[in-house]
Amino acid sequence: MKLSSFNSLLVFSAALAALIGLPVMSVLTNVFSGGTGATWQHLLATVLPEYVGNTLWLCLGVGLGVIVVGVTTAWLTTMHDFPGRRIFQWALVLPLAVPAYVLAYVYTDFLQFAGPLQSGLRETFGWSRADYWFPDVRSLGGAVIMFIFVFYPYVYLLARTAFIERASGMLEAARTLGIGPWRSFFRVSLPLARPAVVAGAALALMETLADYGTVSYFGVQTFTTGIYRAWFSLGDRIAAAQLAASLLGFVIVLLLIEQLSRGRAKFHNTTGRNRPQIGHMLKGGAAALAVAACAIPLCIGFVLPAGLLLRLALSEGDSRFGEHFLALAGNSFVLAGLTALIAVALAVLLAYGARVSKGPVASSLNRLVSLGYAVPGSVIAVGVLIPVTRLDNWLAAQWEAAFGSNPGLLLTGGIAALIYAYLVRFLAVALQSVTSSLARVTPSMDEVARSLGASQGETLSRVHLPILRGSLFTAGLLVFVDVMKELPATLVMRPFNFDTLATQAYTLASDERLAEASTASLAIVAVGLLPLILLSRQIAQRR
């Protein structure tokens, strides 16, 4: 019985790993395909150098920016006490609720020539257009700033956890040696937190590479926009797949850098004194600087855009708010709900299979499944469409041969292929949450259940699932919100005349109907707040 259960779970894990890895393999198999030479000649002569340059500048600017903002805020809220610290320590994660493309829409409306800021300046000082210069937010620099203030919480969360868990005894020893607070930060705390900082920056960069809405709306040509253009404007799926493979190469390089950074050095904690002592209360100018350093990213990344979205939605908003908006919300909730349920169910089976097998094979398969989260949605969309379209055409031919009628595209004509793409992208989110929670369940519970005659399936359903109920809800909620915000894969793979809140916001914003786009954007932000409220409460309780 044990061998049969082990084999069935292992076979299931292997089959699922192959299914999840199929889109990536589909993209990679097109790297050496001939394709259409005219398309590549056109790309090389016109936009490919711009794709490479803009992508590299984005990575450099965003990487440095999220490290500076994330580490600074994490250090201040962890190691110092100043007015508002208890609020900042959980509120600084709230920008994760705002998708980068929504932030781009909001600030374009706020900062454009006819927007409230420039209009107010002209009215206040009596300026005309020729009397002043104002930076253009719809630029490469504007995109870098948008990404920094949306993605810095990745570095903030991991760096703050590292600062909390690292030994305070090391800092005390540094101070007894005459090392001041600034030198101890650069020579002790920051080196100890370096793996966490690099991991957070790598996550932020992968999200930057995966973005389509912001760079497309700002007119910044990157590999992601190139994939979309090659597929839909030029009609060359081979060139789109080859561009997707190039983008995947960027992601692999980032993962290797993060892996090498953690593997070259050892960062051990040698004392049980793991709770850092809060430094002396900052007063006067130091306290004001600390408050400003925490308030600025929070206001730019969440408070101001949320307020502007609410103002736009209430004052103007989408004129088709009623039935049409409910249909869009219904489509988004159906896609997100189905994906979340399937992802949690698959994650439970994968995590439990690795637990009962107690071998490297199942764990390795789970790590392979988790790689999908590092692949941009545009790459996954291309990788899914190529094999699934072939399967769709084959199924239609077989159906017509058997029944004499053509059923059309069964998979890509509906939401099945789109949900498959979501699972490839976000199954890792659910798997990580379930695996970490299952690891906290003592193995003695399994042994007691088996001694009472319970099978592995009964042990899972009657022992583990009740214990994991809260974690399963959290995992499903995280996947739900990620699907609600996903734009590139949805734009490429949604069925005809099937829109979601994300695609509606993008379409309206692309048509310069920013006020109307605020309604759908605000709904996305509101849904994104749900898991962050739970996460913020956990952060506040860590101290």
From TrEMBL:
The chain crosses the membrane at residues 54-76, 88-107, 140-163, 184-206, 238-257, 285-313, 333-353, 365-388, 408-431, 467-484, 517-535. It comes from the Bacteria. GO terms for biological process: transmembrane transport. Residues 52-256, 329-535 form the ABC transmembrane type-1 domain. Its main location: membrane. GO terms for cellular component: plasma membrane. Belongs to the binding-protein-dependent transport system permease family. This is Iron ABC transporter permease. It comes from Candidatus Propionivibrio dominans. The lineage of its organism: Bacteria, Pseudomonadati, Pseudomonadota, Betaproteobacteria, Rhodocyclales.
